[in-house]
From TrEMBL:
PANTHER family: SIGNAL RECOGNITION PARTICLE RECEPTOR SUBUNIT ALPHA
Listed name of the protein: Signal recognition particle receptor FtsY
Low complexity bias: start-end ranges: 59-85
Family per record: Belongs to the GTP-binding SRP family. FtsY subfamily.
Domain SRP54-type proteins GTP-binding: 365-378
Designated gene of the protein: ftsY
Source species of the chain: Litorihabitans aurantiacus
Length: 392
């Protein structure tokens, strides 16, 4: 072949080589910046027709993995949450080991003579346990009468009497079941049970939402999470991590500061389209004296309940906050129509009286308790087991 022909061949091969390299670089760049995509099955996912329907109060959120612009990460391996019976055994054992309240009460009642100083000591112990003035007065009055009438000082009999009176204060007759079965919407179509979770900053609210999702998955419920705390990006990321561990979809906004009510609405919509049993909506931690934020919570309640009533409205309280927790509960009860309390950080039963105080104040049952930092350290509240643990 002539030199001219070889030159032409070399030029063609060079052009093809450059074109191939450029194409490969473009494809790799597209893959790098495409992001992890949207939560499977949620409206707005690829192939669903673009943005999801929302209530018109703000930009439509999207159900995404932790970030739409972050590099794709290897999803965590799916975990199997601990069963409810196993949780109850473990948590009962943990609470029993810290039965400070029961030990203090039985220590005083075991004395040979109960004088006024002893009764004052009992009163102080109960008040320090955050039982509240009225419950403490009622319990001690009944205890005085029963001890005088029965005329017994046998330790076993005294313990049995104290158990009976404490259990009466905890009120085992309250309905502590969680409404987690689908309901019929206004249009007669099935809708997932919507669980709204509210509370002030620092109570472990978002963590509680993640733990509740694990608890429901352990009960074979299909769950969708709604990250309506749109003012704290870390909250949505945290919730996405909890959901990924147990295969639960998370509906969240694609930007910080989006309308929380729209996220709540879209989470309910996504749950209905996915045929989920339960949608759990996490809300921003609110200070109970911030009227604007409480109004926002009221809006979330209205929007989330448009297609079907909210099944559960749970207030997360830190058991160590004592009587301040009651003030929080009163304000939230006015806005969120509370159906139950979740007590976190109930590790030391010296403050176990808050269970009685909050129920007596609001007539709302404690339904769940958290006794540790572990992922499965959340369990249904069982009054009999709680009192037995208090008494060691």
């Amino acid at each position: 072949m002539s030199t001219q022909v070889w030159t032409i061949v070399a030029i063609v091969l060079g052009v093809l080589l450059v074109a191939g390299v450029v194409t490969a670089l473009v494809l790799r760049a597209r893959r790098r910046h495409a992001g992890p995509g949207t939560t499977p099955g949620a409206p707005g996912a690829p192939g669903s027709g673009g943005q999801r329907e929302h209530d018109g109060d703000g930009p439509a959120p999207t159900a995404t993995a932790p970030s739409a612009t972050a590099p794709a990460a290897v999803p965590p391996a799916l975990q199997t949450p601990e069963s409810v019976p196993s949780r109850l055994v473990r948590l009962r054992s943990r609470l029993a080991r810290s039965g400070v309240l029961g030990q203090a009460l039985l220590g005083v009642l075991g004395r040979d003579h109960l004088d006024e100083a002893a009764w004052e000591e009992l009163e102080e112990t109960l008040l320090q346990a955050d039982l509240g003035i009225d419950p403490t007065t009622a319990l001690l009055a009944n205890l005085r009468t029963r001890l005088r009438v029965d005329g017994t000082r046998d330790p076993a009999a005294v313990r049995a009497l104290l158990r009976e009176l404490l259990l009466e204060q905890v009120d085992p007759g309250m309905d502590r079941s969680l409404a987690t079965s689908p309901v019929l919407g206004a249009d007669g179509e099935p809708r997932p049970a919507t669980v709204l979770v509210v509370g002030v900053n620092g109570t472990g609210k978002t963590t509680t939402v993640g733990k509740l999702a694990r608890l429901l998955v352990a009960q074979d419920r299909d769950v969708v999470l709604g990250a309506a705390d749109t003012f704290r990006a870390a909250a949505a990321d945290q919730l996405a991590t909890w959901g990924a561990r147990v295969g639960v979809d998370v509906v969240r906004s694609d930007r910080d500061g989006a309308d929380p009510a729209s996220v709540a609405h879209d989470a309910v919509t996504a749950g209905a389209q996915a045929g989920a049993d339960v949608v759990i909506i996490d809300t921003a931690g609110r200070l109970q004296n911030k009227a604007g934020l409480m109004d926002e919570l009221g809006k979330i309640v209205r929007v989330a309940s448009r297609t079907a009533p909210i099944a559960e409205s749970l207030l997360v309280l830190d058991a160590t906050t004592g009587q301040n927790g009651l003030r929080q509960a009163r304000v939230f009860a006015e806005v969120a129509h509370l159906t139950g309390i979740v007590l976190t950080k109930l590790d030391g039963s010296a403050k176990g009286g808050i269970v009685v105080a909050v129920q007596r104040e609001l007539g709302i049952p404690v339904k769940l308790v958290g006794l540790g930092e572990g992922a499965d350290d959340l369990a249904p509240f069982v009054p009999e087991e709680f009192v037995d643990a208090l008494l060691g």
